[in-house]
């Protein structure tokens, strides 16, 4: 891969900017962690590519994540849950003692660990918005409530919607699809959603309303033409050049699990992470850890 003449200064600039983002609290990533990750790249080509990755990292701090949660729930899920009602309608119902006929349900499958992000989101919601925990339940309890006719709205909570396949599998695993004619409304509220996942669920589960605080799209693909028009310094490195180099590097260095594409789950090639976890739709080179590879972000 032919590097731009400004490659060395670009690397220095990105490293300095990363340090500044940490010092100012925009990245909750320890500097030694960045340094350990960066040291794994040797030579001008590898260092340039590592700098390009760092330059494109989108990181949401704990405060930013919680602000997005507040935005979702203080806005009556942006007016979708109770059209025409005041913005705080949903929040007031979930804080009260009277049964709102709404249940908050974490997105978690039977084989998932208890540390999965769905339960974490519920705990954060309860703490920052002082919600009544009586209106929170596990998926199997929500299905039972639907069967008993004691609920009108099921609201699934999660931190991230990627390609949509995982939520589709969750929905079918717990048999929510078998109760779509029960009269119960289903809402899925990931804090951040990718447009690919939104479109997928619109086709697969059209009766589930998806509402998020932030939406990602094709322009967030690390190997999109738009990204490399800037990073490639006037066409010196194209998106195709970068992708080809990356796949070769990843294959040699084993900086990703065999179970996930080198481009991340669903081949979304994201560079997105939260302070508490990183979606597996992001490039594994950022979050995968092994005896041979030190991760930049928490998985």
Structural description of this entry:
With 299 residues, the chain is an alpha/beta fold. It folds into two domains: 7-56 and 219-287, no CATH class; 62-216, 3-Layer(aba) Sandwich (Rossmann fold), CATH 3.40.50. It is 42% helix and 12% strand. The strands form two sheets. Strands 2, 3, 4, 5 and 6 form a five-stranded parallel sheet that branches. Helix 1 (7-23) crosses helix 3. The protein is elongated, with a radius of gyration of 21 Å. The two termini are 30 Å apart.
- End-to-end separation in angstroms reads 30 Å
Largest sheet: 5 strands, parallel
By DSSP, the count of extended strands is: 7
**Strand residues, percent:** 5-15%
N to C succession of SSEs: HHHEHHEHHEHEHEEHHEH
Compute the number of structural domains. 2
Query: What is the CATH C-level name of the largest domain?
Result: Alpha Beta
Question: Structural class given helices, strands, pairing?
Answer: alpha/beta
List keywords for this structure.
299 residues, Rossmann fold, 5-stranded parallel beta sheet, 12% strand
Give a summary of the structure in a few sentences:
Helices cover 42% and strands 12% of the residues. The chain is α/β, with parallel strands linked by helices and 299 residues long. Helix 8 links the parallel strand 3 and strand 4.
Structural topology:
Layout: H1 7-23, H2 31-38, H3 43-56, E1 58-60, H4 62-74, H5 89-95, E2 102-106, H6 117-129, H7 139-148, E3 153-161, H8 165-173, E4 185-194, H9 195-204, E5 208-210, E6 214-216, H10 225-231, H11 239-253, E7 272-274, H12 284-287
Parallel strand pairs: 1-7, 2-3, 3-4, 4-5, 4-6
Helix pairs in contact: 1-3
